Amino acid sequence: MYRTFRNPILPGCYPDPSICRVGGDYYLVTSTFEYFPGLPIFHSRDLIHWHQIGHVLDRPSQLPLDGIRPSGGLYAPTIRFSQGVFYVINTLVDGKTKSGNFIVTATDPAGPWSEPYWLDDASGIDPSLFFDDNGRVWYVGNWMARNSQYEGHTEIWLQELDLTTMRLVGEPQVLWDGAVKGAVWAEAPHLYKTQGYYYLLTAEGGTAHHHAVSVARSKRITGPYEANRGNPILTHRHLGLDYPIVGTGHADLVETQSGEWWMVLLAMRPYGGYFYNLGRETFLAPVRWEDGWPIVSPGTGRVEFTYPAPDLPDHPWPVVPARDHFDASTLALQWNFLRTPHAEFCSLSERPSYLRLRLRPQRLSEQTNPSFVGRRQQHIHFAAQAVLEFKPRTEHECAGLALIQNNDFYLCLVVTRGVEPVVRLIKRAQGVEEMLAEQTIDTSRLFLKVEGHAQAYSFYLATEPNKWRPIAEDIDGRILSTPVAGGFVGAYIAMYASSNGLPSTNSADFDWFEYVGLDEA
What we know:
By secondary structure, the protein is mainly beta. The chain has one helix spanning 482-485; strands at residues 4-6, 18-22, 25-29, 35-36, 38-44, 51-57, 73-82, 85-93, 100-106, 117-118, 125-131, 137-144, 154-162, 167-176, 187-194, 197-204, 212-218, 226-227, 234-235, 246-255, 261-268, 281-290, 293-296, 306-308, 323-324, 337-338, 346-347, 355-358, 371-376, 381-389, 398-406, 409-417, 421-429, 432-440, 445-453, 456-462, 469-476, 492-498, 507-517.
């Protein structure tokens, strides 16, 4: 039967995808920036259906995110497999105690993964690994051009890696500085060996609207590299700001066991104007080889929303329930914290079948690790709701739901205390807070809901299931988009609690949380 699939294959903030195949199994990782745990790892057997099996960096000792700025942290991982070992190489950007490129390893992609091996002599970002068939291993990354000719002039460079010592050996060699004259931010390099050549796949043009994918080849891994005359082999920058898929770039290639080639890449879906609250998402496109060069999305040259499925057996996974009742002993894999947690601020055991958040002085507006448990917004149309049990003791204490882009752009629906307990909707934009709505409440158990329809976000509360009353409707959600807030991440929806700068012994209990995508099938 003729099968198709629909892009994106990973909706929501899953940028900078990297993929590898082991037999009939495919593994994919993406960037996570300031969020913890770091680098979600997904498993698929058909390239269409993916399920998360863990995080590469899930221990505080692996990931020092303390004080990391918004959109700092973990950039652009690469995953590779060789001789029974999985390797992920990555960059930690602007860390307060540690920064730079590092490698972690595992024999099981679900973990545990090793502590980082830091490559102190590897500068730049976007590292990748290439395992040659002669047994040699190569590091390839980017750095600022040694003879810079313009702002954003970067080079792709190569150096051999000794796996026994996890150190670079020999001399670094510059391979490439972009396909287009004056190309900015040549980055995201990956090497492949096929068709009798070494192929160097890179991104250029920046990670926004002018993003592009280019390719060069050489008979020798150290070069010189010949540019494809068809470069860039993929970009949407010429299709206009109103095109439904923009910013295509940062790609990785994989060959299936049936001999097909496919590309995973990032792109954005603007809506309500040129705004993309979901951030940069993971897409999949077919690749065909012609005259020794890869052709992306043959026939159109554009990333499409639908394609014929890969020639692989269909392999769906069990559907993750929309509602999390917090019955497990650990948080489900879709949940994240902001920065590395060092204090035990959440518990699934103190009150069974509830998620308890302790109120702490840390605020959402600070570059700290607040009492925050969040997940990505993954749909243009969605509904999220939760049941909260909380009694604020002072006007400084609050708990509820937050929709956040970064610490200066968010919306919060929280229970707090004025003269008496109230629910408030608070907007923070460009670092300035504003109360949009307030309602008095007379119960400590509340149902809270936010519904998003494109850029209109509406907020509701109830004291009984499904008996919603509006707090505020059609609030402009564009402050949750990257073009407004800046940075590299998409919007998150979180359970949140704070004592706003003062000590507290109070806590907030969430009975369940539900997220449902309302987009068309």
